[in-house]
Specification:
The protein is an alpha+beta fold. The chain has one domain: NADH Oxidase, CATH 3.40.109.10. It has eight helices and six strands, in the order ααβαααβββαβαβα. A hairpin with a 5-residue loop joins β3 and β4. It binds 3-iodo-tyrosine. 3-iodo-tyrosine binds next to α3.
Length: about 220
């Protein structure tokens, strides 16, 4: 069928597999993803910058509202910036944990993760990546471009980012120091960008431990 287009379209022929292979591939991918855990104990071993770039490339393949790709991944390797981010994050988190800013309900929801205001891993890891969401775009003349489905788009991109790191044997944490407006200043980002997630990236420490969590069964995840 010859469709009429007002904009350029190109053929797309995704690979197809026999049904048995679809299931094997799906199962292998699921098992691979099921081995991923959020990590809070990292090694200080260096990680090639290329790996971080590949994870950002992967995030950048995510679908987005109107293909506006409303994300920016800021890659930070220098120790002084990591130190400043740790310091600022811990100031906020001390108010959360020791200053009573977390509601009792929130505190009890977090208890099993044994999190606290010490964010030493922000200095241990070789890389921090801060994902910023572009609330709106800015044209060269300074006028604003409305962005659609920013949260959904950036959330999906971050999911791809996490999966790419995991595929390379790297670990991360979806860290959302609360509030995290300080990241705008430290990262020197413009006013149209909102800090979305802070990712410490590295190898899990040789003695890393994670909470003994159970994923909810398919019968609860699917309706
Ligand atoms: N931002 C705090 C608290 C925290 C909140 C959630 I929701 C978590 O899943 C984990 C921690 C912190 O980083 O410690």
């Amino acid at each position: 069928m010859a469709r009429e287009h007002s904009h350029p379209f190109i053929p797309y022929r995704p690979v197809r597999y026999p049904e048995a292979e679809m299931v094997t591939r799906g199962r292998e991918f699921y098992e691979h993803m099921d081995r991923r855990r959020s990590v809070r104990f990292f090694s200080d071993e260096p990680v090639p910058r290329e790996c971080v770039e590949l994870a950002v490339r992967t995030a950048n393949t995510a679908p987005s509202g109107a293909h506006q790709q409303p994300w920016k991944f800021v890659v930070i390797g220098d120790p002084e910036t990591r130190r400043r981010i740790r310091e600022a994050a811990e100031i906020e988190e001390r108010q959360n944990y020791e200053g009573g800013r977390l509601t009792p309900e929130w505190r009890s929801a977090l208890a099993h993760l044994e999190t606290g205001s010490d964010k030493g891993y922000l200095e241990t890891v070789p890389w921090l990546v801060v994902c910023f969401a572009e609330k709106y775009g800015v044209r060269p003349d300074g006028t604003r471009v409305k962005h659609y489905y920013v949260n959904e788009s950036v959330g999906i991109a971050c999911g791809f980012f996490i999966a790419a790191l995991h595929a390379m044997g790297l670990s991360t944490l979806t860290h959302t120091p609360n509030p995290m407006a300080f990241l705008t200043g430290i990262c020197g980002r413009p006013a149209n960008e909102r800090p979305y997630i802070l990712f410490p990236i590295g190898y899990a420490a040789a003695d890393a431990e994670v909470p003994d969590l159970v994923r909810k069964p398919l019968s609860e995840a699917m309706a």
